[in-house]
Amino acid sequence: MSGGGAMRNMLFAATALSAMTWALAGGAADLMPVAPMLPARDFQVVTLPVAPVVDGDLGEWEGVAAQTIPIAPTLEQDGQNRVGQAEVALRVGVHGDRVYFAARWADDAPDEKFRPWRWREGKYQRQELRDDQFVVRFHSSGSYDACMLSPTSYQVDVWRWSAGRSNLAGLAEDQSHLISVDPVEDASEFLGPKGTTYLVKRNDAGEPFYKNTKAPATKGAEELPGIEIIGSGAGSLIDVSAKGVWRDGFWNLELSRALNTGHDDDVVLGGGQKIAGAIGVFNRSANEHKSVSGTLNFLFP
């Protein structure tokens, strides 16, 4: 594949395939060595006596023991990764026909701006500021592997919460990522020791709830928002309710989704299943500049 939206990324040939993790699911590695993956572990999902309110207040979770999940940078010596080696206190439970997540992790300040406009040199210029993000992914089809560059094809269901975008609407964007050993239209390309892997990221079907703004030609405020909420959205894209609150040096985040949304682009959760997945944290960054867990085998009641 050449031209179009595709891009080819050469990874260090000396980097072992076992070290090529989910790290690259966001973008190019730019010739930087990929860090070794963390070990896989089981994660027991509990049955909740009451349904938590998804408001970023974790007080309702006090009776549920948190599991400490280590996360680590996806790239070695990554100056744009501001998370580093860290831990996420994670709780996951089911009540009725919904699953609930509660996550808490350290962050010295909330980053809630996404690419704002600032008046510079007689015009508004887009700033490359990024918001904080938290991502959950679940294996949905194919031969799952924590290594993105393994010679296998699979798809994951992704929930992406962003402090300066989806949080404004009380949602996380519901997406899917396709990792393939065969060429795919509009895919990013990653060249590894055992051949080329193709990655496609897509929003689930539905109507978006925010859009990027355009800057006016004449000066108003010194800084203008980079995005605006345009409605409540619709369809599978808005399946995941979410709210994050930053307090005293920590993000406190709750997410929830129906176990079975009825949408063919969502994985069905619950029902005693064991479903592989992972979590990731971004601090004012995007793409590969994040810290991620090893594979989490979610054990549903």
What does this structure look like?
This protein is mainly β and 301 residues long. The protein has a single domain (8-299), classed as Immunoglobulin-like (Sandwich). The chain has no helices and 23 strands. The strands form four sheets. Strands 4-5-6-20-19-11-10-9-21-22 form a ten-stranded antiparallel β-barrel. Strands 8-7-16 form a three-stranded antiparallel beta sheet, with no helix packed on it. Strands 14-18 form a two-stranded antiparallel ribbon. A hairpin with a 2-residue loop joins strand 12 (188-192) and strand 13 (195-203).
Instruction: Trace the largest sheet across and list its strands.
Output: 4-5-6-20-19-11-10-9-21-22
Number of strands: 23
Low-confidence stretches: 1-32
> Helical residue percent?
under 10%
Distance between the termini: 44 Å
**Helix vs. strand class:** mainly beta
CA-based gyration radius: 19 Å
Total number of distinct structural domains? 1
The portion of residues forming beta strands comes to 35-45%
**Order of SSEs, N→C?**
EEEEEEEEEEEEEEEEEEEEEEE
